[in-house]
Amino acid sequence: MNQLIECVPNFSEGTDMNTIHQITREIEDSDGVRLLNVDPGAATNRTVVTFVGSPHAVVDAAFRAIKKAGELIDMSKHKGEHPRMGATDVCPFIPIANITMEETAKYATMLAERVGSELHIPVYLYEAAATSEERKNLATIRAGEYEGLAKKLEDPHWKPDYGPATFNARTGATVIGARDFLIAYNVNLNTVSERKANSVAFDVREAGRVKKKGDTILRDEKGEPLREPGMLKSVKGIGWFIREYGIAQVSMNLTNINQTPLHMAFEACCKSADNRGLRVTGSELVGLVPKSVLTDAGKYFLQKQGRSVGVSEKELIFMAVKTMGLDELAPFDPQKRIIEYMLNENGPDVLVAKTLTDFANTTASESPAPGGGSVSAYLAALGAALGTMVANLSAAKKGWEKQTPYFSYWAEKGQQTKDRLLNYVDKDTHAFNGILEAIRMPKATDEEKAQRRQAMHDATKSAILVPLAVMKTAYEAFDLVEEMVKKGNKNSISDGGVGALCLRSAIYGAYLNVKINCMGFEDAGFVKEVTEEATQIFELTTKREKAIIRLVEKETTAS
Questions:
Q1: Is 263 a catalytic residue?
Q2: Third-level CATH fold of 183-336
Q3: Nearest to 204 by CA among 227, 238, 180
Q4: 160-170: per-residue pLDDT in tens?
Q5: Which of 60, 161, 203, 428 is catalytic?
Q6: Domain 351-558's class?
């Protein structure tokens, strides 16, 4: 499988869009990478760029961007709220897929060596690529910022890892490294006081604040300042005033979102602000975030309201955006801010992205795919969706508040099942198209014939296993539907019945696809095993569906 690295260079220019475009064009014009996001900030005079690609391609694109930034940005004239020491201030590599942190660090070192030797820019390595424990922390390397860089380079202790130990007034120095995913997050306060914003930052960040007695700093036996730890682990933070917005913010880096997720950072700032007579009015994300960051936040805030968390991904994200005010300062478009959405290559031919009308019209066309397999998968998804609907309606029923966690559990489980089934809609068509592609392969030579046979074998096997997976997943959804028919809101019991009918029809349809695709398949042992499993599921389905429909008819007749 392909290795994938994310690169998030921070350039010390946030107002001149012509300069920014020239830098990002170097990335866009590089082969093997994809530019995902460009996030300029006028007040910080800084632009955060996000792109992904194969390791060597990322190294090349990053080098080209750093070179262009060095040509266009004059650090001797730079002013901005954010700490910085170079035209390309920091350039982290983040492992995304099929690559270790150690491997990622090697590519970061490769870039650092090239920048130092070819561009003559002093380069420091940090985090997983750091050459010493002291240099792991970005803040430590950047201490003194650009204004203190000339003196810092005279200190042998701070000799760059690569490049000359001489002050380059135009480019400054660059920090390159490898790290885990980091979230840059700013929380907005209803104050213009940077001092008050700093107080909140000191309350929440892991380093906390220095202990004092009066104006005297308290120190330990080694003379180091004693500190009062903050509320949150793996959080760095400062307070600043943003003239562009006319407000003060708590600016944070969340370096381990497993220890401190986004919503807990938001909540901690709200608590601290409230204790200090302030109010959080909203917040902003810088760059891209993983989807789970916002879906987890959405679930957290729904649970606080005593509501079901078994809603769609879109609703969870909406809840997160609105609760944390991520759209207070600028519109927040999830399609442009969530990394999974930006990496999604889905085009107009993706079935589940079509409208219901377009899906029906595509199915009704003269093309043999999508066909019964994809329709069966979609019908199963509708059955699971109906069961999920009953669970959510039951969770919201007045007087049933104590049962909300129970119905929320089933609703969340139903959403997961529905999403898995939707995934099979396109997988079934892809499997069938694989057979057509294998048929069209050349077969003039013995080698071509062998390749064609193998391709046909693999594609047919996939065309058997996908509808079998639909059967298994749809059968699991009976648990949800049956539970909702028995214990859910009785006003929606007929919806549960329709869900059961959908699942039964979907499983029958997938069963027919398994059988027809098994015909003529040369692996007799595989065919026997699959056919027996599919037949057993179908027989159980018939009994299960009839039992659920009897319950529905009994309740609807009695009422």
A1: no
A2: Alpha-Beta Plaits (3.30.70)
A3: 238
A4: 999 999 999 99
A5: 428
A6: mainly alpha
